[in-house]
Design goal:
Elements: H1 19-32, H2 35-61, H3 65-83, H4 88-115, H5 127-137, E1 139-141, E2 148-155, E3 158-164, E4 170-173, E5 180-181, E6 185-188, E7 191-195, E8 199-200, H6 203-208, H7 210-215, E9 218-219, E10 228-230, E11 236-242, E12 244-247, E13 252-255, E14 260-264, E15 270-271, E16 277-278, H8 289-296, H9 298-333, H10 341-348, H11 350-353, H12 356-366, H13 373-378, H14 390-418, H15 422-430, H16 435-463, H17 466-472, H18 492-501, H19 508-533
Antiparallel strand pairs: 1-11, 2-3, 2-8, 2-11, 3-4, 4-5, 6-7, 9-10, 10-11, 12-13, 13-14, 14-15, 15-16
Helix pairs in contact: 2-3, 4-19, 8-9, 8-19, 9-14, 9-16, 12-17, 14-16, 15-16, 16-19, 18-19
Function: Part of the ABC transporter complex MalEFGK involved in maltose/maltodextrin import. Probably responsible for the translocation of the substrate across the membrane.
Keywords: Cell membrane, Membrane, Sugar transport, Transmembrane, Transmembrane helix, Transport
Protein name: Maltose/maltodextrin transport system permease protein
């Protein structure tokens, strides 16, 4: 006898859904999500795809094949994730991962790449751009040059020259595109005066842009040695030939006036036998030269050493002072016997409520040696150089950072204190422990369990506290003996900023190398600190 346990013989066996039924169920699921949500998703993906398609056309035109492939793959992956019914976790994780890759991984990776190049003043572009700039800077008018009839055209923001040769041929070109023949120009008395897709500049417009027009040099051909056409008045043009002769096969640039040969020796510039370089050069990979120079070059190592020492002192002292002041105030205002605790707590967090860069600017005015509030009012007209003396400037920075940082520590310490069970303190008191012993042996270790990661984060923040240094002292007073633009109160990050963006020469490669060094230092300190804090977890 066969028995079917758990199956009612009177009930029919359910049939497997057909393909049409499954499709209907899918449509029903989509409809149940709401037509508005579906429309929002379609519109958002449409905008994303449109932006991606525009970027792909631009990147292909610039021959950026790697970036083009990344955009194509990323766009396809996003569409695959959000157009599918499943993959729900990926739909929530994708935006965060994209922002992480763009604003963290890419920035760090690109900074590391720049650190291995000579990118900086005089080495900003490619070799072709450097050759073009050198040839243009050495142009001289050919004495027997024929006169070319010229019409100035504009396409977008680009100036172009429409040239009518003495034999009647018409050509057009701009600073980036050599002259090339056209056959649809608009003629007036044997002179080309217009071209489809371009706008012809009037006399008044030519006068308004006279500096840009007279500086415009349109290459005669793809060979830079053939010279360029320039116009002094916007109506007549003449041939100019450079006194530098470029040999692409040999990789040399020869000065025809002195017969000096400048060779591409791999340093990113044409260099003569005696070491003279023609500027501008171009960007090349120099390997670890920037890192070696940062750590071994005596002229750079000197400022780097004392800036690094001051950076550690500034970060450590800032964390210690703000923590202990915040903890002291938290203990004081956590006492139930104090009246008006809420009012005092509001006053304590006021410095934290204002933007730090505005507070730093206010403090900079108050500490001004000549008319600052501290000297003129509090000190009765004294002339204390708060921000111009190397030692006092550092003390001033620590004082201002204490003012800005203690409210945060006060808030977190207050929350941590209130989370400690009162029974522990009562038990210790019953056992005869004094208040200091209760605090040192019970409260402080329990506080550090939750506050140690915040102290590490505060150290990392102050290690790179650019806003305070820049707004209060701008790194000053200036160290005139240093070969790089650095001051006595500069920390590493502000020194990196000055190396990259101030002074007559801007060395982005060296600044990026410094940035990577800072990242490695902070990462090592954070890893070691977090490992040390694991010992505190046993207290839980």
């Amino acid at each position: 006898m066969t028995s079917n346990v758990g199956v009612d013989a009177g009930e029919p066996t359910p049939e497997k859904p057909s393909k049409r039924q499954r499709q209907a169920g899918h449509i029903a699921d989509l409809a149940s999500a709401g037509i508005k949500v579906l429309l929002v998703k379609i519109i958002a993906l449409g905008i994303l795809d449109a932006l991606a398609l525009t970027a792909i056309f631009i990147l292909v035109g610039q021959r950026e094949w790697l970036v083009t492939a990344i955009v194509v793959i990323a766009t396809g992956l996003i569409n695959w994730i959000y157009l599918g019914r499943r993959r729900l976790p990926a739909k929530y994780l994708t935006p965060g991962v994209i922002f992480l890759l763009i604003f963290q991984v890419f920035v760090l990776g690109y900074t590391a790449y720049i650190g291995f190049t000579n990118y900086g003043t005089g080495h900003n572009g490619t070799k072709d751009q450097a050759v073009s700039a050198l040839m243009s800077s050495a142009l001289e008018r050919v004495e027997d040059s024929p006169t070319f009839a010229v019409t100035v055209l504009e396409q977008g923001d680009t100036l172009n020259l429409l040239v009518t040769d003495p034999d009647g041929a018409v050509r057009v070109g701009n600073a980036e595109t050599p002259l090339h023949a056209v056959d649809n120009a608009q003629m007036d008395g044997g002179k080309a005066v217009g071209l489809d897709g371009y706008s012809t500049l009037s006399f008044q417009e030519i006068l308004a842009q006279s500096d840009a027009i007279t500086a415009l040099a349109v290459p005669e051909s793809e060979d830079p040695n053939d010279g360029a056409l320039r116009t002094p008045d916007g109506s007549s043009g003449y041939l100019y030939v450079s006194n530098l002769e470029y040999d692409e096969a040999a990789g040399t640039m020869t000065d025809t006036r002195t017969d000096t040969v400048y060779t591409d020796d791999g340093s990113g510039a044409f260099t003569s036998a005696d070491g003279e370089q023609l500027m501008p050069g171009w960007q090349v990979v120099v390997g670890a030269d920037n890192f070696v120079r940062a750590l071994t070059d005596e002229s750079i190592r000197g400022p780097l050493v004392y800036v690094t020492i001051w950076t550690f002192v500034f970060a450590l002292v800032s964390v210690a002072t703000t923590f202990f002041l915040g903890l002291f105030l938290a203990i004081v205002f956590n006492d139930m016997r104090m009246r008006g605790r809420k009012f005092y707590r509001v006053l304590m967090i006021l410095p934290y409520a204002f933007p730090s860069f505005l507070s730093a600017l206010v403090w900079a005015g108050m500490m001004n040696e000549s008319f600052g509030f501290i000297n003129q009012v509090l000190l009765g007209g004294a002339a204390v150089p708060w921000l111009t003396d190397p030692t006092l400037a550092k003390v001033s920075i620590l004082i201002v950072n204490l003012w800005l940082g203690f409210p945060y520590m006060f808030l977190v310490c207050t929350g941590a204190l209130q989370s400690i069970p009162e029974e522990l303190q009562e038990a210790a008191t019953v056992d005869g422990a004094k208040p200091w012993a209760v605090f040192r042996l019970i409260k402080l270790p329990l506080l550090l369990v939750s506050l140690a990661p915040l102290l590490i984060a505060s150290f990392a923040f102050n290690f790179n506290n650019f806003n305070l240094i820049y707004m209060l002292t701008n790194g000053g007073p200036r160290d005139s003996s240093a070969p790089i633009p650095v001051g006595h109160t500069d920390i590493l990050i502000s020194m990196v900023y000055k190396v990259a963006f101030t002074g007559q020469t801007r060395d982005y490669g060296l600044a990026s190398a410094f940035t990577i060094i800072i990242f490695i230092v902070v990462a090592i300190i954070s890893i070691i600190s977090f490992r040390k804090t694991k010992a505190l977890e046993e207290l839980n």
